[in-house]
Design a protein that fits this description.
alpha/beta; Aspartate Aminotransferase, domain 2; Aspartate Aminotransferase, domain 1; 2 domains; 4-stranded antiparallel β-sheet; 11 helices; about 35% helix
Length: about 400
């Protein structure tokens, strides 16, 4: 049996995984063309072209670019009619922006637990969270793996609610052969540095509803209305516009996203097939109608009982020493310091005690089970993927057969 690197053995690999974002000559060409020949912000033809192409790529009629995924979330909530005191149902297993955008809209985040097989909002937990204040259900397509939109939309229709998709990680993901984002009333995407389409920062909203996207335009554009005067402001909006340089980078990446997705698909399949053979590790499932994941992250679950009760953190350290960076990802959103609510600052949340909440699936994922690999690990060649597999096999074998090493 090989000695683990954490105990002085030779690591499986020492070279880094591919970098992201990927630079290429076409990105430079498009960026320079924009800087030399187009407006840099308001009125840019490049921004307009990107919005149209991005919406078209995602099977939507309308697109609007924004300064970030976070601002896109706030804008969609306001455009959907969310007002102070309204409730928005969301999963507690997500990035902070899903929750903070609700607070910024003066609304109330209401959590419903997630499905352990997909890490996504569990439709079976939603109806118990609905009250007469509920306005929106906001599913998150975690790691680009689509949430169960059919069941969520059916619940929303039954209770006359709006569905806004947080597709920040889900560029190109598909539900029943249709790209996510505009299957509900609308959805948002992020172009932050790590995302599968990246401009360093940026976001977008897509929809098939013209009135909704026009309202989004107003909230993202200083409260202006389409066709109105430049100094005519009808809504309490902000300046959440994207610049044309960022749009040019994103336009160029729309030409390469399919090739990148195919590579992630191929590498994920190879990892899944190998990891499924390791008792104690469970690969993330997809719902039957989820026809494609963006594979923004590679997620799986770790069962310490199959590894002699050894905690996940020791598994992480052993894997990292082998040159494969595994980590735990999110903490439960309601345990973030932000949700230690001061009712003087957030009077509409008075009486809500987030710090005492406990959603068992989310708790277990965050503290014991969830294992993350960054998307860069899915962008390598066959040897890179084999190294990941070899590291998983090497570490889990020692966890099972030499557990005393981890108690010293």
């Amino acid at each position: 049996m090989q000695t683990l690197a954490i105990f002085g053995g030779k690591p499986v690999r020492t070279k880094p995984f591919p970098q992201w974002p990927k630079f290429n000559a076409n990105l430079k060409k498009e960026l320079l063309n924009t800087m030399e020949n187009d407006g840099w912000g308001v009125g840019s033809s490049i921004i307009k072209k990107f919005e149209e192409k991005f919406a078209e790529y995602h099977d939507a009629k309308f697109g609007l670019s924004t300064s970030s995924g976070t601002t896109a979330l706030w804008v969609t909530l306001k455009a959907a009619g969310v007002k102070a005191g309204d409730e928005v149902i969301l999963p507690p297993y997500t990035f902070i922006a899903t929750g903070s955008s609700i607070l910024m809209a003066n609304a109330i985040p209401v959590f419903a637990d997630v499905d352990p097989d997909t890490f996504n909002l569990d439709p079976a937990k939603i109806e118990a969270a609905i009250t007469d204040k509920t306005k929106v259900i906001m599913p998150v397509h975690i790691a680009g793996n689509p949430a169960d939109l059919d069941r969520i939309l059916a619940i929303a229709e039954k209770h006359n609610l709006i569905v806004i998709e947080d597709a920040a990680q889900a560029h190109g993901s598909e539900w029943d052969g249709k790209k996510v984002g505009a299957i509900g009333l609308g959805g948002i995407f992020s172009f932050q540095t790590s995302k599968n389409l990246s401009a360093g920062e940026g976001g977008a909203i897509i929809s098939n509803d013209k009135d909704f996207i026009d309202a989004c335009f107003s909230y993202a554009n200083c409260g202006r209305i389409r066709g109105g005067e430049w100094y005519e402001h009808q809504f309490l909006g902000g300046n959440f516009r994207l610049n044309s340089m960022a749009a040019s980078l994103l336009l160029a990446q729309l030409e390469t996203i399919e090739a990148d997705m195919q590579l992630r698909d191929k590498n994920k399949q190879k990892l899944d097939e190998a990891i499924e053979q390791i008792e104690g590790l469970t690969v993330t499932k997809m719902y039957p109608k989820a026809t494609r994941s963006a594979n923004h992250l590679y997620l799986l679950r770790y069962d310490k009982e199959k590894f002699n009760g050894i905690h996940r953190d020791k598994f992480f350290k052993a894997m990292q020493a082998e040159g494969v960076f595994t980590y735990g990802g999110y903490t439960p959103l309601y345990r973030e310091q932000l949700f230690t609510i001061d009712s003087n600052e957030y009077p509409w949340l008075e009486g809500i005690n987030y710090k005492d909440m406990n959603y068992p699936v989310t708790e277990k994922l965050c503290t014991e089970e969830a294992v993350w690999l960054r998307q860069t690990h899915l962008l390598g060649d066959e040897q890179d993927i084999q190294d990941i597999i070899d590291a998983f096999v090497k570490v889990t074998t020692v966890l099972k057969e030499q557990p005393k090493l981890f108690s010293e």
